[in-house]
Design goal:
Layout (H helix, E strand, L loop, with lengths): L1 H28 L24 H19 L5 H27 L7 H21 L12 E3 L3 E6 L2 H22 L5 H22 L16 H22 L8 H18 L6 H4 L1 H19 L11 H7 L4 H29 L2
Antiparallel strand pairs: 1-2
Helix pairs in contact: 1-2, 1-7, 2-3, 2-7, 2-8, 3-4, 3-7, 3-8, 4-5, 5-8, 5-10, 6-7, 6-8, 6-12
């Protein structure tokens, strides 16, 4: 439990102090955000704001986790290392995307095909290691069963379908956070709540783990307490970054942050056997992603008509005249409600055994 507190505190201080340094360095180098011309005109004043702040989040998480392990004397677990691999791997893809944008001075970085290939390569490596690595009792990091709050044994997938499912989870979560990251602090605040929920879930699963507390309601989850350390580091890092990312943002996380944070969410869902529960806990990201799918689909079906004035959903409300800070705070409220509902479902399943 001490490692959880240390990881969160160190990562929090890391982004609070590190982001300030990063802002100075990025401003000195002229690494500023480029703004799409087809977006809301109110965003044009944000042109030149430093980006790639997700790099600070990644470094703070790794540092926070490392300090927690050194301070408590426990070795890192396979689950935590795999999660950090996924987190950093997708962050590297996002970093390349951000760097191309600022070096080429254009609003588009990696081409969609190249970004997709990168996500697939990282996802495949993660999936194969997570499926193949067994502990002394034969448990793997992820299983062949699709889960809600625990594995549904009747929903088992063969290897090929399981790998595809893992890739879909990773692509869906990472792109969902990426689409949400359009207003100051919106994605960062929502991500903080989601990772905070996974701190609770992992601690609960550790206390009720079948490895040392067997029973009809125990959880067959590998290394839950170490996953809680990573979740705490992510929560603290996002909290600290939000200090600088809240409106008016002094820095943006960029694709470096959004892809890595989304990948971490997918990793937690897969490892804690809460894959479908993530649809509720991360409901804000689902809602915003769904708005883009609906807009594109309706536009193609009706040959030019739109459901929303602009997608993703947050920009629709901007064009309706809502102030940016109003949208962000109200979406944070929605995110908090989704997270509380997801935690309620998680606890209700344990209490009732349904």
């Amino acid at each position: 439990m001490l490692a959880i507190l240390i990881a969160g505190a160190v990562a929090l201080v890391g982004t609070l102090l590190g982001t300030r340094v990063a802002i100075r360095v990025l401003v000195a180098k002229g690494y500023g955000q480029l703004i799409r011309d087809d977006g809301p005109t109110s965003h044009h004043i944000k042109r030149g704001t430093p980006t790639m702040g997700g790099t600070v989040i990644i470094l703070a998480v790794i540092f926070g986790y490392g300090v927690a392990k050194l301070a408590t004397g426990f070795a890192p677990s396979a689950s935590a290392l795999l999660l950090l691999f996924l987190f950093c791997g997708l962050g590297a893809i996002g970093f390349l995307d951000d760097f191309i944008k600022i070096s080429k001075q254009r609003s588009l970085g990696l081409r969609s095909k190249a970004k997709f290939i990168g996500q697939v390569v990282v996802g495949l490596a993660f999936a194969m290691m997570a499926i193949g690595l067994e502990d002394s009792s034969g448990r793997t990091v992820i299983t062949h069963a699709i889960s809600i709050t625990r594995d549904v044994t009747s929903w088992r997938l063969p290897l090929v379908l399981l790998v595809i499912w893992v890739l879909l989870m990773i692509a869906g979560a990472s792109n969902g956070v990426n689409l949400t990251d359009g207003l100051d602090g919106l994605a960062t605040g929502a991500a903080t709540m989601v990772f905070g929920a996974y701190v609770f879930i992992n601690i609960w699963q550790s206390n009720q783990n079948c490895a040392f507390n067997p029973g009809p309601k125990c959880y067959e989850v590998r290394d839950p307490l170490d996953l809680a350390v990573v979740a705490s580091a992510l929560t603290g890092a996002c909290f600290g970054f939000l200090w600088w990312n809240a409106s008016p943002a002094k820095i943006f996380m960029g694709d470096t942050g959004s892809l890595s944070l989304g990948g971490a969410m997918a990793g937690f869902a897969l490892m804690t056997r809460t894959e479908l529960l993530l649809l509720i806990i991360g409901g804000l990201f689902v809602m915003i992603t769904a708005s883009v799918i609906m807009q594109v689909g309706y536009f193609k079906l009706t040959k030019g008509k739109r459901i929303f004035r602009m997608a993703p959903l947050q920009h629709h409300f901007e064009l309706l005249g809502w102030a940016e800070i109003t949208i962000v705070v109200r979406f944070w409220i929605l995110s908090g409600l989704f997270v509380m509902t997801g935690l309620g479902v998680f606890y209700w399943e344990w209490v009732t055994g349904v």
